[in-house]
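Re: weekly structure request thread

Next one in the queue (402 aa):
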Amino acid sequence: MRKATLVSLTLVLATAAVGIARIQTPAAAAGVGTQASPASGLALDQIKMAPGFKIELFATGVTNAREMAIGSKGTVFVGSRNKPAGDTVYAVVDLNGDYKADEVIPIAKGLNEPSGVAFRDGTLYVGEIHRVVKFDNIESKLQSPGEPVVVNDTLPKDTHHGQKFIAFGPDGLLYVPVGGPCNVCDKEKDDPRYATILRMKPDGSGLEVFASGVRNSVGFDWHPQTRELWFTDNGRDNMGDDVPRDELNTAPKKGLHFGFPFCHQGDVSDPELGAARPCSGFQPPARPLDAHVAAIGMRFYTGTMFPAEYRNQIIIAEHGSWNRSVPQGYRLSLVKLEGNKVVSYTRFAEGWLRGMKPAAAGGGAMVGDVWGRPADVLVMRDGSLLVSDDKAGVIYRITYGK
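Done, posted below.
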């Protein structure tokens, strides 16, 4: 990766990029669905990326913005989490094709932390804590989508690691994770759907376990060439600052077990449960990531705007640590592959954490100013990259130009 530099972008320009003019649709006239006021306190000029990259605001007013999906007409759908505000699914509309949001429409409210969104054949699928629902022909009725149709409502109802990231695989099946409902516990013996990535047919039938031993995956994608599943997984807490590390995993076939709750990062036996099963019996990670960075949304970069060295490489949204004595994460990372092997893990964009200082006199724990937390990434049709931020309630757009 090229030597990092500050990407200069003033807040005045960032504000202009949002498209502040209020577009009067039927929903807008009723007082909903209009572009919110420009976000304040966003230090976009502090984001560090390689030369040639630029970051600006794509949309504001997207509270708790989490997973994103793009419709066939270019609508960006966004899920949310964290009640009471995190009960909404948004449609972000770019009316004139300038890659700046003109309108943010709340198309569904009152849902159970609808973090996950996926789009297929004109239909928007939404992953709630306990179920998957859908909205048919959604882009033709954004102002009045109607009530959701239930696809499958048999999922566990636990809120601990219950938020979903959902996506359709190359096999046409919908992949849906179910996290372990704890920091560390062996719930799989009671219900084999815990700590897994499940998959089902688009109508909700044929639900099955694809991968096991997955503590909490909130991001996955398929390799553009091998079509194999790659996913992030968050490591357990309360074992120290640097152990265990988060994981980037690959599952080339159904039936693999990735170690939770017995083994972490491929080679660390759990102090409470590890005696039951050794690490040697599990699928090791493709690459251990940094500890407690909360690696969540990830995609393969398949566009053509960025330099060729980024093509078919992985960009991960690292949401940021919550209990580490020296915070880390709050950034985008880049994982490069050669064939199916990870060869590097570096920073792609960072700066949402700034002003690190000791929490108290005498050193020890550190604190910093966290003004944003990347949650997901999405490659647009022009090759630019959208980044959702659930703390700031905005979506950024990253472009490249010499």
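The mean pLDDT is 90. The radius of gyration is 20 Å.
Next request, please.
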